[in-house]
From TrEMBL:
Top-level lineage group: Bacteria
Pfam families named in the record: EF-hand_5, LIP
Domain EF-hand: 411-446, 486-521
SUPFAM superfamilies: alpha/beta-Hydrolases, EF-hand
SMART domains membership: EFh
Organism: Nocardia suismassiliense
Protein name: Lipase family protein
């Protein structure tokens, strides 16, 4: 057995996805149709940007693959618990999940199963932080390629419950995060996509039963966000949260069986200070996915209301995602693992395509408002800017929760607020083309707008400012732009256009001017255009 000390000693010396160690799993942990099973430790990033070792399992089918090797399913597992002893590589997959994985192995797919950071590895597990889990889901695919088996570059992510949530975050970032792999799409089974909506519905009434995932969610938020549960939960509720910090799902299932919101103090949970903000941080942005998505949910699921999945599916379809929604009549939460017979055919079709084409149209086919409306749904919304920020920091290889990444993402939110307060006339949280054009006609105060967008410009400078001198030289900016899918030649030309005073550096003031000019007159020739969607 590998000790925590060994893992920490290895922790800082590898690129993300590097296989650190592996050993054969006990055969009792192997799903059906597995020809080999491994427990692996690999280099992760950690949500906060620190290096972190992550563990997981890898299963390879029996026999020999055809063509370019076994295609890979990266399976994101459902909730097992928050403690090290609940990790699938330590105790094995649950029977329903093991049977599900066996289906993929029988169909000729290798399967990776990350434990997620903080389970059976140092540090806390950031429960329901999809961004923290997403790179774990990708990096274990990279690690599996180092085990010596013939694996294809083609891969897809499949997730259930908590893992469905993680799978969707993976789908938002996979193509840019791991361009050396060939990502084909996302399957999310019973994914809690609209966490604030779900919690609001399930805690609205005193008499409503406590759902299985609520204690884990609150325990996770207490650990990672400092949620003061003692200020509103009953003594019984506090003991339930403490149990969730170490107990497996089976124990929590029995613990909540007879409990109501009134018993534990969670009635009207969203109304408590800070809770809504924390739950919003768990939401999957309703942005445009660049690869196809299959969502599936059951009508008898007590954990995940169907309304949440239907709403999310409609939002990402409107945003331009290639989305297939499967509604499973009479299926409860766990039975979703076997309730979608169409899943194999859907995945096979995406895997057998000759090449994985982006769902995004080339940026040079759009102009004006359409350049800002990257989702193509006819309006701008906060989730668009959330996706802009997430994709930019990951294009640069920055962990989404690091201080520099957090500043960039906060900068994009500030830009959204700056535009919304000026252009969203009816206050519905969206800016239509008409509202945008009306704002452009009446805009007069550049100074105020510049103050509002300064956080974005400054944070982008800080992101790429390797020598920390407060400006970007050619090498620094070109490196960032290449990460955002510009060629070196394009990046060098952009640097010259942003460096308006020919000083050999790009300053915060020059970047502010470029952002403002593009926002007020969005044309593809503007040097600020790259901040709004070329990285995809």
């Amino acid at each position: 057995m590998i000790s925590t000390e060994d893992l920490l000693q290895d922790n800082a010396f590898h690129r993300a996805g590097t296989l650190v160690r592996s050993e054969e799993l006990p055969t009792s942990f192997w799903p059906g149709h597995a020809g080999m099973g491994y427990r692996v430790w690999y280099q992760g990033i950690g949500y906060d940007g620190s290096g972190r070792i992550v563990s997981g399992s890898v299963f390879v089918p029996a026999g020999n693959p055809l063509g370019d090797g076994w295609p890979v399913v990266s399976y994101a597992h459902g909730t097992t618990g928050l403690s090290d002893r609940t990790a699938p590589s330590v105790i094995g997959l649950s029977r329903p999940e093991s049977r599900h994985v066996a289906t993929w192995l029988e169909a000729g797919y290798a399967v990776t199963v990350t434990d997620y950071e903080g389970l059976a590895s140092p540090g806390p597990h950031p429960y329901f932080n999809g961004e923290a889990a997403a790179d774990d889901v990708v990096d274990i695919v990279r690690a599996a390629h180092q085990l010596g088996h013939p694996l294809s570059r083609r891969w897809i992510v499949v997730g259930f419950s908590q893992g469905g949530h993680a799978a969707l975050f993976t789908g938002l970032m996979a193509t840019k995060y791991a361009p050396e792999l060939d990502f084909r799409g996302t399957v999310a089974l019973a994914p809690p996509v609209e966490v604030p909506m779900i919690v609001g519905m399930q805690t609205a009434d005193d008499s409503a039963s406590v759902t299985l995932f609520l204690p884990y969610l609150l325990a996770g938020l207490r650990t990672t966000h400092g949620l003061a549960t003692q200020e509103f939960m009953t003594g019984l509720g506090q003991r339930l949260i403490e149990l969730a910090e170490y107990a497996p799902v089976r124990d929590i299932h029995y613990a909540v069986a007879v409990l109501t919101n009134q018993d534990i103090g969670t009635t009207g949970l969203n109304r408590h200070p800070g809770v809504e903000e924390m739950l919003n941080a768990c939401r999957v942005p309703a942005a445009r996915f660049d690869r196809p998505v299959m969502l599936a949910a059951g009508t008898a699921d007590a954990v995940l209301p169907m309304a949440a999945v239907v709403q999310f599916a409609a939002e990402i379809r409107r945003a331009g995602t290639d989305i297939h929604l499967e509604t499973c009549a009479g299926a409860d939460h766990t039975s979703m693992l076997s309730a979608v017979p169409e899943i194999l055919e859907w995945v096979d079709e995406r895997m057998s395509a000759t090449a994985s084409a982006s769902a995004f149209e080339p940026s040079n086919t759009r102009s004006g408002f359409g350049l800002l409306d990257i989702t193509g749904d006819g309006c701008l919304a906060a989730d668009d800017y959330e996706a802009f920020g997430l994709r930019l920091v990951q294009a640069y290889g920055e962990a989404p929760g690091s201080p520099r990444a957090a500043a960039v993402r906060a900068g994009y939110r500030a830009l959204w607020r700056a535009m919304a307060i000026r252009a969203d006339v009816n206050g519905d949280g969206r800016i239509t083309a008409d509202e945008f054009c009306a704002w452009r006609r009446t805009h007069r105060d550049n100074d105020a707008f510049d103050r509002d967008i300064t956080p974005l410009a400054q944070s982008v400078i800080d992101l790429a400012d390797a020598d920390r001198n407060g400006v970007l030289d050619r090498e620094e900016l070109v490196g960032l732009l290449i990460g955002c899918e510009h060629t070196p030649a394009e990046a060098s030309i952009l640097f010259d256009r942003l460096d308006t005073d020919d000083s050999g550096t790009v300053t915060t003031a020059e970047l502010i001017a470029a952002i403002r000019q593009f926002c007020l007159d969005p044309t593809p020739d503007k040097p600020g255009a790259w901040l709004f969607g070329r990285f995809r």
